[in-house]
Amino acid sequence: MTLAQGDEMTRQQVLTLMACMLSTAHVDGVTPQELALMKTFYEQCGLADLPPFADDEGAYGDPVEMATQCATDPEFAEQLVLMSFMTAYADGHLTDGERAHVMAIAARAGLSDAHTNALLLQVKDTLIGAIAMLPDAESVARIAKGL
C-alpha cells in the first residue's frame, strides 16, 4: 500500500523520504541517475517551504532516527521503503550493500523482513512493467533477470 494518488505529504514526510533515499544512494556512491530521481521527486513534491535541494549525506536529517519515527505510520513506512528501493535501483541494479541498508531502514520503520521483501518484489515488478513494452524481448528478459 502506498500513498493514494493525490494525497499530499507533509513537510516532515518529504524530509524523511529524502534523508532515507539520500542515505541509500550514498551506500555505494551517488550516481547521476539516483541524483536525478531524488531531485525530481523533491522538486515535484508540491511543497513550497522546503530547504534547497542538497545531495550531502545527512542534509535532511538522520535517516535512522527519522525511519524509527515512521513506525507509527505503516502506510508511510511502506512508501519510505519503496522509494528507498527505487533510489537504489535508479542506476540499474541493487547492490548487496544497498539492499542491507534498505532492510535496516525498514526494520527501524517497523516493517518485518517478509513485508520488506514483498515490497522489494513490488519494486521489481514495477520496473519490469516499465521495460516490458520494449520491442526487443531478449533484452527485456536479460534486464529482468538482473533485477
Structure write-up:
The chain has helices at residues 11-25, 32-44, 63-69, 74-89, 96-108, 113-131, 137-146. By secondary structure, it is mostly helical. It starts with 10 loop residues before the first helix and ends with a helix. The protein has one domain: TerB-like, CATH 1.10.3680. The protein is 63% helix and 0% strand. Helix 4 packs antiparallel against helix 5 and helix 4 packs across helix 6 (113-131). Mean pLDDT is 85; it is low at 1-6. It is built from seven helices and no strands.
Quickly list its features.
disordered N terminus; globular; mainly alpha; TerB-like; 7 helices; 147 residues
Q: What's the SSE blueprint?
A:
Blueprint: H1 11-25, H2 32-44, H3 63-69, H4 74-89, H5 96-108, H6 113-131, H7 137-146
Helix pairs in contact: 1-2, 1-3, 1-4, 1-5, 3-5, 4-5, 4-6
Strand content: under 5%
Radius of gyration (Å) = 15 Å
Helical fraction equals 55-70%
Shape descriptor reads globular
The name of the CATH architecture is: Orthogonal Bundle
* Count of strand segments: 0
The secondary structure category is mainly alpha
Annotation field: number of helices: 7
End-to-end Cα distance: 21 Å
Summarize the biggest pleated sheet. Answer: none
